[in-house]
Each structure stands twice: as structure tokens, then as C-alpha cells.
């Protein structure tokens, strides 16, 4: 019991440390602080003399200094760093009089640097406030109340949620949302009980309902069996687990200094953006042979997240979400629960974003950072070939995890950045939460004569087929900016000259991508290793130093390429893209993703077919999952995991953890061995 | 400090428990005990009046009772189980007068039941003793001593290791081995310093050298930089890690009763075989809704392990190993190191096999069993759509791991069977140890003008290209034996009738495999979910109950299909096979894998194209890795991980861990919080 408190104290200690330091900035890439958000608000509201709903902040984020400036600062004299911080700027997308404004604010000079009215297609990210506002409108709307009454449902148990509308070839678009309502019946699991057949359309700029459809009455699934909250469950419970305590009496092995984190041989900056969520920058690894930190990743984040559902009917066809660009993957981050979302040895950090009124909103415990002791083996060998001795040498593995969870409506996305001492960075994605559920009259599959577009999970309940595509922006800078993308193709060689008893073997044929077209890749079609290398840096034996993409959850889109959702999600057409670094190419689905028309996507940028050889390049990789729901996913989904890894490949001269010592035995606080 | 001892005590307690129980058998699938091995030895040696080298035991294992008998016993009245054990039999492959004998011994009756002289191609598994014997022969062989002297090397620093010879179209085969020798120069890492160009051929039946080739002098790589033993390393060390203690004061949550293990909602039998290594049988999961254990996996083990190297030259072409069938994946299991190979909360079990003289050999700590607390999330959801409350419900994940490590010469294979409360079984494979290294004159890639068949890792050192294929035998019995194999194909549907604003979506088309040909699958060619279902059992809404194969490390062979090694390894031609259960079809590469000719492989059995619908079927899945070595793999390789998962899919009516409670807080022994 005491030890628990002790562990708690460690956690709290870190929490308070981080909480106090992440409200002021120390690094050019630190996210905007609460006081900076307030300053932006003051400056912009003063200029336009307006506040919500006339003027709304759809996005406020750091307008990063140019990469050259950041790099120059990062590697400058540590003594002068505090005083040579580059000027701070904020980038704002505001909605003002039905127009999207792009405003750059200089925070040092307390002035607006530039203003631009965006005139292209698509709309900015949705704010929570406007979604909350329109989700209340049906409750004052007579036809909706009548629809609820007609179904014999209790309106006090109805909740409405918002869905972006997508784009389906309309010539003119208004900034609208569709509302999907649910009958909770006292259960927490509203998403399991949709009021199918009713679609409410709201105009966000007008903040009013603009269309209403009550197509047909479909039975609402019963609440029984939907609940997932422990206190509302009835026995039998199970399975049961024995508790365990994980103790680091001297605290964790990592250091958090503001947003800069160092651990073992890694150091990196952990940023945050209302749209991207966690942003990893300037990740470098200490090379014990070179006795210096070496650059690996200038920037890594999830650029876009495409979730198309596969039901073409009137109440579902539009559900083809861009979870980052429409809903804000950072805005959707939720507070993590100590001892459950993260293990007992985790430290926590908060995050702040600005609401539509510009007022900072705090997400407490938005990040956790912990050392992962999963029981894995870093490396080992048992040697018994040498006479009279059996040698066994084993190193247990440890890694550092930065975790966030973004809950976008029904789904919870667990995003892990895992740094391994061996030099790998593993990006993990866990999908949990509630399925996208459609109500139906069916209670048995034998009744289904046409396509039901999903799996019948229980009475009146269809888990609709869908995909998840997460597109990562990975600005690798392998020992510097000038990098190339190299495909190491494995090719069969036929031995026909009888020089060997063998008839064949495989060998590698390396191919350096010259332009973007060479680097648009569908994985799985041929055996190939993909790496970003520094063509100007070689190891002692002469291999190009690089990092390899090690994919393990890939899926190729099955929508027709000319279908509207796929045009908007065309950045998923390939599993891999490589582009030359361009500060403006941040969002794979475009800056204005809501109702976008696919004109500003990674796939379109790539068509410029720019040179990417020996250039500052960005690797884009899409993790993809086709999801055919099964009954186990209901009423709440066991985590489905995926991801990929970036692994050093001839980056080091030899195994970088060869000389890692196993952790020393832990000397716990004085304990008696009797409980 | 005290707590360490305390944790140790727990471990030791378990260790001694298991050590005392796994020497007698309680279950029809328990591996042969030391006394049973002795009995087999006595009976067979008495019959043939011979001992090594005239009569050698190449394999002794349990001759399992028929599946029907085991199942009938397993589900019989627990009270009478101890007295109704089916008769115990051993299956023996012996080498006697240059013939392979198959002998079945009845241990209850202490008699030989049947004897058969095998007359087909291929030879039985190699024994450690015969390999050790022939590995010493070069040191008494003058031409070899001269070769060593000619190179100016010290013979006292030379070690020879064994390699199987494969089959390359020879009409007549003798039971031979090739020896590869190394100049250790005081380093532990012999495999990094090969005496390239020398091949020694030994006859195993004659126990003498039969051929010798000293083709050319190649520089032996220097010992510098090869060492991996901590005590022999020089500073700088690093990276460094902070220790952590993991404590379960009331012991672990699993129970080991002989070879039967139960934990949370799982129970299974952990067997052992000198050839297969760990064998998981009778895995069942408790269904909280049905209030009973339900059958999932009758039997799972690694059936064969194919490792072809990609160098066709005279001293390397034959290196196309079948690590199970030739070297014994169980025989190659090594003792696990507490706190390093397995975490501090692990329990350990021993294993026993019979040496070529029939005498039992103990592998202490051959298995470890531990609860894995990796910091993962079992499921979660944050609900903020319901007015005035934010609900957060999170369950941390725990799983049970059974781990073994097989060290086959240079490579160490970590084999994990991970049981998840959500119903998944995850098979993990970790590759570590030492690369297959070839000596070369090269010191820089610029010198390489022809194919070097690998990566230049450091001076004079090539890491040779190779593959790893692990073929799992997975006898799934989903709620009973009669099962079917179902492909759920994801297919694009074009919407052409303007019934939807969408132009397309995907849906599922299910296809039940009728015969073996329908179930030979190369993964990645089309999006499909593969499942073994019980066509006679459906859920309430009418879905067939099943388990899905969730592959994540697949590779397709690149050798020509008619090349000799690929004929022998043809069981890797597809990533998936399904066969009707047949007791004799155990070894995917054939019972006599050494110098096999590919006549008795899974690929050949499958050509019979038997019916597999609503039958007792076996799923075979091959985990594959193409390995292009990189410098980080040298001198010892950071673990490269792969594997796959079997996941319940409509097996349960709903999420089986919905009502799992988070582990209770741990009450540690009385502690003061001051160190």
C-alpha cells in the first residue's frame, strides 16, 4: 500500500514538473502556450472587432520558423540558446463572415503579419463549440421532436452527434454538418443505439438547421448488452487478473525538460498541434562510436486519417471521415487515466488548444511517457560450440513510449511513439472504442437477402464495414537534410551455367528514386526493402547510412479511384510517397479538408514529379486496416493494433546496443518480505 | 534488496514445483519423462544388443494416443482421470547398421510393438553427439592441420561446427555432414571468423572424414569488434537503463499443474518434443456467457523451419537448413536466464530429451511462463457526447506468455506463445544471435565488382543474404473437430444505378474451401480475411463461430520452384495450406528431413486435394522473413520480430473481456518509502 503511494508520488512529482514547464516556451517548436493563445485572441479580435459566432477560431497553431532557422538554433551554442530564440508566430484559420481567413500573428511584435482570404474549395477544421451548438438544435426543432414521439421514444434520452458531410460532386458547397441521433435508454453506449433513418442537416455558419429527413422507422437496438461501464455491469464478471506493482525507486530513466525529452540514447522534442495531435521533432540518437548525437527524424506526425464507411445508402453514404482535417486529431485527444491508459511508471503532460473563442482549453494528462518493460529480449546468444564452456549473454529490452489517445466520436485511437535503444522508432496505432453501428430490422443473418453493408452483431445492430488509413508525415533527416530514397529489390537469379549445384538464389538490386513517380509504392507487389539514406555519408565498409521503413499493417483502397471519397482520400492510393520537403505540404488531405475536393492532397503534389534525389525529402507512409466488424468488437472493441517501424540500416557501424549493460538490480525501499 | 530475494523465492518456489511435477506424467500428452526414456533405452538396446555408435537414438518422442482417445480422456469425469490414462507409447527413430529403424515401444507393457525399416529418401534428425564427434575429427586430420598452419593460424583457436548438406540431385545419398571451421582468436564470437574456403565432409554412420577441400585462402576476419560478452567489453559503455522491479506479492496469476497451465480465461497443455520444441495442446477459453470452457486449438507447434542462404558458391550453396527436421528445434532449446530472457515474474520449467545413447538430457529452465504487463490497453472509451458528464472507461491489458529459445548454431530463435484474455493467441518469433558470415578479401564495397551474395559488414566480413520460414501446424478445433476454412473476400462494388451519391463501396463475399486446392494461399494478392469456422455452430444472430488468421510477417520464396532446396522447402510455396487432420502428417518438411528430396512435404500432401469442408482440419501458416543483413546486425543481432495472431471472430457473442475487472491494487510487503 505504501509503495503504491510512493509510486504515485513519483508520478505526481513528474506531473507537476511538466505541468509547470509546459506553459512557457523554451524551444522554437514548443506548442503555443495558454498566454500565447490569449494574445492571439486579443490581437485578432481587436482587428476584426468581432467574436463568436461572427468570428471563430477554427485553428490556431504554431507558425513554425523555417527549418533552417530551427536547425541552426538547435545546434547552436547551448549557452546562448535561451536568448537567441527565433521570433514566435502563430498561424490562424478563422471563419469571419462566411469566409475562411488565414492570419499570421507575430507574437513578439504583437501584430498581424499577413491576412489572406482563402477562396478555394473546402472548409477549415470544425470546432467543438460549433458542433456542440448545432447538436442541440434538433431538440428545439418540431419535426424532430415529432419523429422521436412517433417512434415512442423518450426525447430526454436522445443525444445527437455530428458527422462531416464529405463532397459528392456538388458544384456549390455550404459549410454544413449532418447530425446522427441516438436513443441512449440510460446506457452510456449511445453509439450502439442509433435513430436510423433520420438525418438532420445544420449550417455551421448560420448555426441553424437547413434540412431534415425522416425516411423510415427502423427499430432502435435495445440498451441491454450495450453498457461497458464497470459500475453498471452485472455478474458474472471475468476474466480476473492478479495485480502487479512496477517500481522504479529512483524514478524513471527519462528526463523531461519542457517539451524536450531524453532517455537512454535518444533525445527528441514532443510537440502538440490541435490538428495533428502529437508531433515528434528533432529525434536524434547518440552514437557511442562517433561519440555524438546523430539526426534521424526532423519531424513525424499523423498528417491525415481517412475513415470511409462502406454503406452507400442515404443515411450512411457520406460517412467518409477525415479525422484529422475535419475533427482535429489533437483537439480530440483525451485525458489519460493513470494505471490504466498508461502503466504506473508513466509521467504525464498536459496540452492546450484554443477554442473557437480563442480561449485556451486544457487537456490534462494528454500525453504519457513511460519506459516499457514488456519482457522482450534486446539480443541474446547461447554459445556451446566452444570447448568446455557454455556462454550465455542476454540483454533484456526496454523502450520509451510516448502515448496519446484521440477519441473521435465513437472510436478511440491509441497512438504510440516507441523509441528503442537499438535505434528503431516504432509507431503503434491501437483502435478501440465503439464501432460505427447502423440500426436494422434484422435479428438473424438468414433474414438478410441483400447486402447489409456490415456484420449483424446482435438484434437490430449492424457493424458497418469500413477502413482506417493513417498517413504519417516522416521528415527523416538521416545525418543531415540531403537524403535519397532507395529501393532494395530482391530479385531471383537463375544459375544456368552449371557453376553451382544450385539452380537459383536471390540477390539485391538497388534503385535510387530520382523523382516522386519512382517513389509511389504499393507494398506487397514485389519484395523490396525501402530506405531513406544519406548518399553523402557512408560507413567504413562503404554502405550508405540509412533508415529503413518496416511496414506491417498495410491495406490498399478498394473504393473506385474516381469515387468522390477516394478523390479526397487519394493520399492513400499508395502505401508510400516521397516528396521533396516543402513547408506548405503538411496535411496529406489538404489544409481545408472539410468538404475538400481532392485538389490539395499528397497524391496531387506528387504528380509534380519533382526531383527527390540527394534532397531534403519527406517519407509518407499510410497504415491501413480494412475492418469487417465481428461480434467480439461489440459493445466495445478490444484493441486492434497496427503500425510500422523505422529501423537503422547501415546507419551505425555495428549493433548500437552491443555495449548496453543490463539494468542494475533494483534496491527497493526497506521492505519486510512478509505481507 | 529484500524484495529481490522475495521475488526470487517466488520464482524458485515455482521452479521447484514444476521441476518435481514434470518428471512424472499426468496427462496423455505429457512429454516422455526421464524414467520413460531410460525404459525405452533398456528395451531397444536389449532387443538389438547394441549401443552407440552401432545403434543410435536419433529421435525418441511420445507416440501420442489417437486424437479421439485424448479428447475422450480430456473431457471425461475428472475423478477417474488419473486412473484412466491411455497406454503410453514411445516412437523411436534409431540408426542401426546404416539403416533407419522406426520402433514403437509400449511403455506400459515394456515391449516393442512394431519395427519398420525405413527405405525411402532422407535421413533422421541429427544427434548432438554425432555432430560433436565428427566436429573433432579435423583436429586429427593432417591435411586440415596443414591448411591451418599454411594460413599462419593457431589450431588451438580453431573450432569446427556442423552443417547439413542438403540434396542437390544426387542419385545416391550417404549420411554426411559438412564442417565449417572458425578461428576464434580468443573471441566468443566464433561465427564471425570463418575459415573460408575449407570444407570438410564427414560420414555420420562411419564417423569418419570422407572428403576434404581447401580451395583458396581467404583472410579470416579479425577478432576485434566481434566480442559480445559483457565482461570482455571495453568502455565506452551504453546506452544505460534504470532498473525496475516488478512485483507480484501473492505470486503470479497462473497455475502450473504438471504440464497443464491455466490463467485468466485460458487453459492449455504445454508439451515438449525434441524435434518440435514447445507443443501447445488442448487450448480452451472460458466463455463467461456460456459458462464453460470452449475448445480452440487442439495442437499448435512449429512443424518446420527452413533457412536457405543465397550464396551459390562451392563453400556455401548447400546451406539451406531445415532447422527442425535436421537439427531438432526442441533439442536446440537452451536454458533461459531469469531476469533477462524472461522477466522477474516468470516461472520456469525444465525439458528432457534422450541423447543418442538413450540417456535423458535435461534442459534446465527450458520454458518460462510469465504474465506480460506491457502497458497496453485492452479496451477503452472516453464518452463526452452525453450531457454534463465525461465518462472514461479503460482496461489495461495483460497476457500470458510461454517462451522458449532455440539456438541452432549461430542463430537464436525466441518463440513466444501469447494468450490474450480477448481470446487471441499471438505467436511471436524473435530472431537474434549471430548472422551467417562469410569471410572475404573485401574491405570496402567499392572493391566489389561481382555479386557478393550479402552485405559487407566490416573488413573481410559478408553477412550472407538468407530467408527464415517458420511453418506452424495449427490444428484448430473451433468448438469441436468439424470445421471449415472460409475466405472472406473484400470486393469492390460499383454503384452504377445512381441509387447513391457514391460510385463504389466494398463488401464481403464468403467462400468456403471445398478441397485443399481452394486453401493454398499466397497472401497479399487480394484483400481477404481467412478463418477457420465451425459450420455447425452459429451465434445468436447467425454468424458462424470462428477464429481468424491475422498474419503480419509473410514472405514468398524467391528461389526457383524447381531448385533443389525449394523442392525440399516446398511447404513454403504458399503462406497458407489447409489439410484434413491426419495423424501422420506432422512434419511439413517430411519425417526424414535430412537430405530429403521433397517427396514427403506439406505441398505434396496437399496435392491429394482432399475434401476439407466440415472436417477435422489443420491450418498451416508460414511466417517468412527475407533477411538482407545490415551492419547493425553485427557482431550480434538486435532481435528482429515477427509472427501472427489467431483472433476469435464471431466465436463469442460479444467482447469476451467486457466484464473483465482491472487488476486490484497491489498490497506490497510492509515497506518504508525511504530507500
TrEMBL record, chains A, B:
<comment type="similarity">
    <text>Belongs to the copper/topaquinone oxidase family.</text>
</comment>
<dbReference type="InterPro" id="IPR015802">
    <property type="entry name" value="Cu_amine_oxidase_N3"/>
</dbReference>
<dbReference type="InterPro" id="IPR015800">
    <property type="entry name" value="Cu_amine_oxidase_N2"/>
</dbReference>
<keyword id="KW-0560">Oxidoreductase</keyword>
<dbReference type="Pfam" id="PF02727">
    <property type="entry name" value="Cu_amine_oxidN2"/>
</dbReference>
<keyword id="KW-0801">TPQ</keyword>
<dbReference type="GO" id="GO:0048038">
    <property type="term" value="F:quinone binding"/>
</dbReference>
<dbReference type="GO" id="GO:0009308">
    <property type="term" value="P:amine metabolic process"/>
</dbReference>
<dbReference type="InterPro" id="IPR016182">
    <property type="entry name" value="Cu_amine_oxidase_N-reg"/>
</dbReference>
<dbReference type="InterPro" id="IPR015798">
    <property type="entry name" value="Cu_amine_oxidase_C"/>
</dbReference>
<keyword id="KW-0186">Copper</keyword>
<comment type="subunit">
    <text>Homodimer.</text>
</comment>
<dbReference type="InterPro" id="IPR049948">
    <property type="entry name" value="Cu_Am_ox_TPQ-bd"/>
</dbReference>
<dbReference type="Pfam" id="PF02728">
    <property type="entry name" value="Cu_amine_oxidN3"/>
</dbReference>
<keyword id="KW-1015">Disulfide bond</keyword>
<dbReference type="Pfam" id="PF01179">
    <property type="entry name" value="Cu_amine_oxid"/>
</dbReference>
<feature type="domain" description="Copper amine oxidase catalytic">
    <location>
        <begin position="246"/>
        <end position="658"/>
    </location>
</feature>
<keyword id="KW-0732">Signal</keyword>
<feature type="domain" description="Copper amine oxidase N2-terminal">
    <location>
        <begin position="27"/>
        <end position="117"/>
    </location>
</feature>
<feature type="active site" description="Proton acceptor">
    <location>
        <position position="323"/>
    </location>
</feature>
<keyword id="KW-0325">Glycoprotein</keyword>
<keyword id="KW-0479">Metal-binding</keyword>
<protein>
    <recommendedName>
        <fullName>Amine oxidase</fullName>
        <ecNumber>1.4.3.-</ecNumber>
    </recommendedName>
</protein>
<feature type="active site" description="Schiff-base intermediate with substrate; via topaquinone">
    <location>
        <position position="411"/>
    </location>
</feature>
<dbReference type="InterPro" id="IPR036460">
    <property type="entry name" value="Cu_amine_oxidase_C_sf"/>
</dbReference>
<dbReference type="GO" id="GO:0005507">
    <property type="term" value="F:copper ion binding"/>
</dbReference>
<feature type="modified residue" description="2',4',5'-topaquinone">
    <location>
        <position position="411"/>
    </location>
</feature>
<feature type="domain" description="Copper amine oxidase N3-terminal">
    <location>
        <begin position="124"/>
        <end position="221"/>
    </location>
</feature>
<dbReference type="GO" id="GO:0008131">
    <property type="term" value="F:primary methylamine oxidase activity"/>
</dbReference>
<dbReference type="InterPro" id="IPR049947">
    <property type="entry name" value="Cu_Am_Ox_Cu-bd"/>
</dbReference>
<dbReference type="InterPro" id="IPR000269">
    <property type="entry name" value="Cu_amine_oxidase"/>
</dbReference>
<feature type="signal peptide">
    <location>
        <begin position="1"/>
        <end position="20"/>
    </location>
</feature>
Amino acid at each position: 500500500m505504501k509503495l503504491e503511494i510512493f509510486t504515485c508520488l513519483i508520478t505526481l512529482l513528474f506531473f507537476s514538473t511538466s505541468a509547470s514547464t509546459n506553459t512557457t516556451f523554451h524551444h522554437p517548436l514548443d506548442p503555443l502556450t495558454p498566454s500565447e493563445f490569449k494574445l492571439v485572441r486579443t490581437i485578432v479580435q481587436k482587428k476584426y472587432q468581432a467574436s463568436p459566432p461572427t468570428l471563430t477560431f477554427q485553428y490556431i497553431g504554431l507558425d513554425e520558423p523555417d527549418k533552417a532557422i530551427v536547425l541552426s538554433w538547435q545546434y547552436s551554442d547551448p549557452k546562448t540558446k535561451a536568448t537567441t530564440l527565433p521570433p514566435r508566430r502563430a498561424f490562424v484559420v478563422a471563419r469571419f463572415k462566411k469566409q475562411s481567413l488565414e492570419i499570421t500573428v507575430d507574437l513578439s511584435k504583437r501584430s498581424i503579419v499577413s491576412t489572406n482570404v482563402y477562396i478555394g474549395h473546402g472548409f477549415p477544421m470544425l470546432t467543438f463549440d460549433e458542433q456542440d451548438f448545432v447538436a442541440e438544435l434538433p431538440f428545439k426543432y418540431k419535426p424532430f421532436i415529432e419523429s422521436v414521439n412517433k417512434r415512442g421514444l423518450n426525447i430526454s434520452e436522445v443525444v445527437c452527434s455530428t458527422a462531416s458531410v464529405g463532397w459528392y460532386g456538388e458544384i456549390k458547397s455550404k459549410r454544413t454538418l449532418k447530425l446522427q441521433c441516438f436513443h441512449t435508454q440510460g446506457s452510456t453506449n449511445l453509439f450502439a443505439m442509433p435513430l436510423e433513418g433520420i438525418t438532420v442537416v445544420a449550417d455551421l455558419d448560420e448555426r441553424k438547421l437547413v434540412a431534415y429527413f425522416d425516411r423510415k422507422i427502423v427499430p432502435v437496438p435495445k440498451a441491454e448488452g450495450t453498457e461497458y461501464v464497470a459500475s453498471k455491469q452485472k455478474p458474472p464478471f471475468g476474466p480476473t487478473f492478479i495485480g502487479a506493482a512496477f517500481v522504479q525507486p529512483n524514478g524513471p530513466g527519462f528526463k523531461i525538460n519542457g517539451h524536450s525529452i531524453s532517455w537512454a540514447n535518444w533525445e527528441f522534442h514532443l510537440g502538440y498541434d490541435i490538428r495533428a495531435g502529437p508531433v515528434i521533432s528533432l529525434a536524434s540518437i547518440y552514437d557511442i562510436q562517433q561519440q555524438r548525437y546523430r539526426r534521424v527524424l526532423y519531424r513525424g506526425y499523423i498528417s491525415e486519417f481517412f475513415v470511409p464507411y462502406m454503406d452507400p445508402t442515404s443515411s450512411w453514404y457520406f460517412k467518409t471521415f477525415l479525422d484529422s482535417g475535419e475533427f482535429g486529431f489533437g483537439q480530440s485527444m483525451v485525458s489519460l487515466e493513470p494505471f490504466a491508459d498508461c502503466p504506473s511508471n508513466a509521467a504525464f503532460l498536459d496540452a492546450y488548444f484554443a477554442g473557437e473563442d480563442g480561449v485556451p482549453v486544457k487537456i490534462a494528462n494528454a500525453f504519457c511517457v513511460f519506459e516499457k518493460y514488456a519482457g522482450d529480449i534486446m539480443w541474446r546468444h547461447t554459445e556451446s560450440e566452444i570447448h568446455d564452456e557454455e556462454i550465455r549473454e542476454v540483454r533484456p529490452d526496454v523502450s520509451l513510449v510516448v502515448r496519446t489517445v484521440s477519441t473521435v466520436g465513437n472510436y478511440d485511437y491509441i497512438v504510440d511513439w516507441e523509441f528503442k535503444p537499438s535505434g528503431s522508432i516504432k509507431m503503434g496505432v491501437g483502435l478501440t472504442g465503439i464501432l460505427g453501428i447502423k440500426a436494422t430490422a434484422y435479428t438473424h443473418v438468414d433474414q438478410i437477402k441483400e447486402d447489409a453493408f456490415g456484420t449483424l452483431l446482435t438484434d437490430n445492430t449492424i457493424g458497418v464495414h469500413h477502413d482506417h488509413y493513417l498517413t504519417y508525415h516522416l521528415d527523416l533527416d538521416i545525418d543531415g537534410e540531403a537524403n535519397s530514397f532507395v529501393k532494395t529489390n530482391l530479385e531471383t537469379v537463375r544459375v544456368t551455367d552449371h557453376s553451382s549445384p544450385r539452380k537459383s538464389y536471390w540477390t539485391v538490386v538497388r534503385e535510387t528514386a530520382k523523382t516522386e513517380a519512382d517513389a509511389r509504392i504499393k507494398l506487397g507487389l514485389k519484395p523490396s526493402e525501402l530506405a531513406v539514406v544519406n548518399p553523402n555519408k557512408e560507413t567504413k565498409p562503404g554502405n550508405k547510412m540509412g533508415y529503413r521503413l518496416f511496414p506491417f499493417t498495410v491495406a490498399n483502397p478498394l473504393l473506385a479511384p474516381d469515387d468522390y471519397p477516394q478523390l479526397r482520400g487519394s493520399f492513400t492510393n499508395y502505401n508510400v510517397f516521397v516528396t521533396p520537403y516543402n513547408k506548405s505540404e503538411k496535411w496529406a488531405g489538404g489544409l481545408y479538408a472539410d468538404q475538400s475536393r481532392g485538389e490539395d492532397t499528397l497524391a496531387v503534389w506528387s504528380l509534380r514529379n519533382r526531383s527527390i534525389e540527394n534532397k531534403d525529402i519527406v517519407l509518407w507512409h499510410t497504415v491501413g486496416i480494412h475492418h469487417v466488424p465481428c461480434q467480439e468488437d461489440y459493445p466495445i472493441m478490444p484493441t486492434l493494433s497496427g503500425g510500422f517501424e523505422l529501423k537503422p540500416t547501415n546507419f551505425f557501424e555495428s549493433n548500437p546496443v552491443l555495449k548496453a549493460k543490463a539494468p542494475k538490480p533494483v534496491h527497493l525501499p526497506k521492505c519486510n518480505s512478509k505481507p
